[in-house]
Write a structure and sequence with these properties.
Strand order of the largest sheet: 2-1-3-4-5-11
Largest sheet: 6 strands, parallel
Radius of gyration: 24 Å
Shape: elongated
Strand content: 5-15%
Order of helices and strands: HHHHEHEHEHEEHEHEHEHEHEHEE
Distance between the termini: 73 Å
Number of strands: 12
């Protein structure tokens, strides 16, 4: 019985593609599996036949033929706020869809057991893994993947290793630029709310802030630097602490937009006018940045592009198209909105 699509028409087979392109079935298989040593004109002819026939490769059959499952896994920690992970998923899934790979998700708790991740690898037999922060920094997990010869790419690791491939934003430069913006407006007492210390981005963003202050010859006031956890509640609590200082700040930088939203709510509860009495800035340019009032000045990191690059590099590694590991860093961009102004200016 011939397989059909949901529309009722017969589903094209690899033989149909080979016949249409005038090549062997083996050549079609090599093109579909993105293998090297296929002439560009032949590759284009095969892909044209694939498009015309709307051929969809069978991942199971491809895996049997090449000892691969044509699937990759994505490991991430259950987030307090989902927009960041959603953009990661969008970027990785888009690349998987383009290259005919399946994407298998592995959400985890704050500290997943190594054996649980190994069990996921064993059960799914994924060809590689995308590791998000902070889980991707755990040596026990990277060692487990390395020992099993499972390719992986880290997104925003805290510590880069020349043995591995990683992709991430330039958190240091983005934070430096944001603090410079506030200094240029005339702020000299700037509070800073740190992120979750398990994330490499947290220390990089603090370092960028401190460097901007020192570059202007300013002395760092440690009382203005307070801990946070990248969530709304920690940002709100940190803001109330800063408001209690005898000489409170005229501006606050939060290490992400969720904490900045907490600062805005805390200011409204305390009767502090924004931005005349307090400027507030965040980091990420998540949807939250447009949902606050006033809209949030922030730093935009290209999360979807970062995730897409991570997936592309992983697939290159799986296909044997690279013999070296790389570190790819993306620039961030300052986005100025109404939550920041010169001191005393509404």
């Amino acid at each position: 019985m011939q397989e059909t699509t949901t529309s009722g028409r017969a589903r094209a087979t690899i033989r149909d593609v080979a016949r249409r392109a005038g090549v062997s079935i083996k050549t079609v298989s090599r093109v579909i599996n993105h293998e090297a040593n296929v002439r560009s004109e032949t590759r284009e002819r095969v892909m044209e036949a694939v498009r015309e026939l709307q051929y969809e490769p069978n991942p199971a059959a491809r895996g049997l033929a090449g000892r691969r499952t044509f699937s990759i896994g994505l490991l991430y920690e259950n987030p307090h706020e989902f927009s960041y992970i959603q953009q990661i998923l969008d970027g990785v899934f888009g690349v998987c869809q383009t290259h005919g790979y399946a994407l298998l998700l592995r959400p985890s708790s704050e500290n997943p057991a190594t054996e649980d991740i190994v069990r996921f690898l064993t059960q799914t037999r994924v060809d590689g893994m995308v590791l998000t922060a902070p889980i991707g920094d755990r040596p026990d997990l990277t060692d487990a993947l390395t020992e099993r010869d499972v390719p992986f790419v880290q997104i925003s690791p805290g510590i880069t290793d020349t043995r591995w491939t990683s992709v991430g934003p330039d958190d240091f430069a983005g934070s430096h630029t944001l603090t410079e913006h506030l200094l240029d407006l005339g702020h000299t007492r700037i509070g800073f709310i740190q992120g979750d210390p398990r994330h490499g981005a947290a220390s990089a963003r603090l370092d960028g802030h401190l460097r901007a202050l020192r570059d202007r010859g300013m002395t760092v006031d440690e009382s203005l630097i307070v801990p946070g956890l990248f969530d709304f509640e920690s940002g709100k609590a940190a803001a109330h602490g800063l408001f209690g200082l005898a000489d409170r700040p005229t501006a606050i930088v939060a290490s992400n937009d969720d904490m900045a939203a907490g600062v805005i709510v805390a200011a409204q509860e305390a009767g502090i006018a924004l931005p005349a009495e307090l400027s507030v800035a965040g980091f990420d340019d998540s949807p939250t940045a447009l949902h606050t009032w006033p809209p949030l000045t922030t730093v935009r990191q290209p999360i979807v592009e970062i995730a897409s690059q991570a997936a592309e590099l992983l697939l290159e590694w799986i296909r044997g198209e690279r013999s070296v590991h790389v570190r790819k860093t993306f620039d961030c961009r300052l986005v100025v909105r109404r939550s920041t102004s010169a001191p005393g200016v509404a």
